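For the sake of transparency, this paper describes our internal protein records without simplification. An entry from our holdings is shown next, in its original layout:
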Amino acid sequence: MKSQWILLFLGLLLPAPLAQGVSKPNFVLIMVDDLGIGDLGCYGNTTLKTPHIDMLARDGVKLTQHLAASPLCTPSRAAFLTGRYPIRSGMAARGRVGVYIISAASGGLPQEELTFARILKEQGYMTALIGKWHLGLNCEHSSDHCHHPKAHGFDHFYGITLTNLRDCQPGHGSVFYNIHAHIPYSTLGVALATFFFLHATGIIAVSRRLTLGLVALLIVALALFGLFILTFSNFNCFLMRGEEVVEQPYVSENLTQRMTSEAVEFLERNSDRPFLLFFSFLQVHTALFASPRFRGKSLFGLYGDAVMEVDWSVGQIIKTLERLKLKEKTLVYLTSDQGPHLEEISVHGEVHRGHSGIYKAGKSTNWEGGIRVPGILHWPGQLPAGTVIDEPTSNMDVFPSVVNLAGASIPNDRQIDGRDLMPLLQGRVERSEHEFLFHYCNGHLNAVRWHPADSTSVWKAFFFTPDFYPKNATACFHTHACFCTEGYVTRHDPPLLYDLSRDLSESTPLTPTTEPNFTSIVEVMVEAARVHSQGVKPVVDQLSAGHLLWKPWLQPCCSSLSQLCRCERDHQKGSLNTEVEIHSN
């Protein structure tokens, strides 16, 4: 009898599942670009102030083992929107380049994929994406918009379809400046030496005319490449409203202000109906920028200023929900698409990177620093305030969580890899539904995470790891990002094994000597990887060379080529109060 009273008391303390007949909740999903888990006060940063984000964590649920499905922007966002590993949708590259860097490319999120936005739109939700998309635009001509956010369920779009590249801001260099690191000089040198040897020995004869022609061709190619670099921002750094280009190239200085105003206006217009807002920051991806009122306000240069502006923007959105009396009706989620880009040093030598905290490495790797990201959920009355959960969760889990809460059904015609977070968040269960999670580096299965049902251990096995440069670093400074292909990785057989419950920093791999069950643990994880891989159906690689290359007929242009596609017709000015709050220790 006593135990029954205890259970009843505990039941009163725990938030109850949504009752039948309760109105549909609203959703505000916030994703920061390249934000490190160590950049936020609520995750241990004591010098970079993020009071509004910290408040969300304090009054909501903080996930401390929240994982991006990929350590790169494009595949991570595809997984987030669809609840599926990006390898299933073709959004995980088989080659070296794993993201889109040219707007007139033909690859993108396939129309057959279902996003949570499309499902919620069918449920009567008003849906909006404000900010970064990075999942393609056109297929066959410059206005078909087959990969546009509207084609994937977003009623309203205000943002950029690519990403915020160095080329998008004057004085920040170019994403192509490091191209020399990818040129196979040794191969070219051997080929050239072989050519001269064959010519000198008379085995082959090359006329003077042909030689001059090849030199002229090389000069023309270099000139065209130079022109491509000079005009890159005009053709790739543009802002869209709906399906119209309204600013080309965009001015980033006040872009966060404008996007925040756009978000506030969307909330105000739709306060009397269910809505989903996906606010996807351009910050803190390079080229870094911050509005004038935030510049110089942090202790960490322009990067810290940008993080402060992100925090201010989050605060404006939360204040708007409060003013519209929507706070108790809205689930707010905040995360980063992957870990910080540790190789980011500006052309002037300034450090423009974030912080991974105690975790190893960063973006483009599946070490914890590259995939362990902030995971904050806030919903007064439904989620217990001040809760910290250390179970493995994924950004793919947002899909089934949002779909279920909206009253829709999880698609049963495809594999959904995410798991509904609500039972875990509300304390109705203590363990994550993820026994295994699979970590991909582009399209290559890189590592497996195993959280056995009868254990507190979290095992992680690497089949290969990136070759850092310099060797004592935890980044790949020679190539500006770590690659997954041969020549850039070291393979491990048996796999490198870690127990993250004892070694969060992945500092010391286990061996049969230090872990008595090493062989049996590895066998289970290798078998799980085999079964998983067998269940991945072949699809078109949306990041193949053919889908990544520039195609002139797909080029968005809001004026004319003679004007280098320039235009300025965005009416959003970003008129919110931008008073900067300085918080001392």
Summary: The CA atoms of residues 304 and 466 lie 28 Å apart. DSSP finds 13 helices and 17 strands in the chain. The longest strand covers residues 489-499. The mean pLDDT is 91.
